[in-house]
Amino acid sequence: MSADGFDVRELIRAKRDRRAHAPDQIRAFVAGFARGDVPDYQVSAWLMAAFLNGLDAAETDALTEGLLGSGRRFDWSALGRPTADKHSTGGVGDKVSLILAPVAAACGVLVPMVSGRGLGHTGGTLDKLESIPGFRTRLSPEAIRAQLDRVGVVMVGQGPDLAPADGKLYALRDVTGTVERDYFIVPSIVSKKIAEGAGAIAYDVKCGNGAFMKDPGAARALALRLVATTRALGAKAAALVTDMSQPLGEAVGNALEVREAVALLR
């Protein structure tokens, strides 16, 4: 099986044998997967080889570029205001996005936030928002633009045209046991954040017994990689490693956390 002029089998062999890929090979591989030219079984084989033998920084950046290039990249420059977003790796009671996004918008910053659902024991921003009766987390690009221009912030779920290859790749990572690697986690996060049109991104990497990252060293490594890859793709970035050894705030639970966030904003 080949994709864009190279043999996918050779790509799998190379990573099996601990050899590095050229960036254009990874981008072509992802493009072929997104088109359906590379079958799931070959992608699964490559994922396991990479999971066991690793991707270096250049390969990680190229994988991010490939996922980003599989869909639409939004550009809000015509609205004439700076754009920024914040991403958290998740924790118990983590309602910071519900508070920070409207505060940033009130300061004149556009916040086009594409949020996710809960993973494991951590709550997702989308789940919290959907506890509000009538709240819509799926909007058309036109509706997103209109809301950004009107109120300065929009919080939605990942649409089908936003890094679609990432959704396909994550589904395979999930069923093949290849989720927990920084060089897979970073492209998944960063590709969506760049695609949403954020010019600056703040990362909140949680660490502690209530977070996915238990080890401070591992959390720091993830934070550094998130920042480096984001900057490599042309956006400003900063990261904090924060403690998740106890719930954040006083409320835990989707509707309760929304209520606490609203009370704080008032």
UniProtKB/TrEMBL annotation:
GO cellular component entries: cytosol
EC number(s) recorded for this UniProt protein: 2.4.2.4
Domain spans labelled Glycosyl transferase family: 82-265
Enzymatic class: transferase
Recorded GO MF terms: 1,4-alpha-oligoglucan phosphorylase activity; thymidine phosphorylase activity
Keywords carried by this UniProt record: Glycosyltransferase, Transferase
One GO BP annotation of this record: pyrimidine nucleobase metabolic process
Subunit structure: Homodimer.
Protein name as it appears in the record: Thymidine phosphorylase
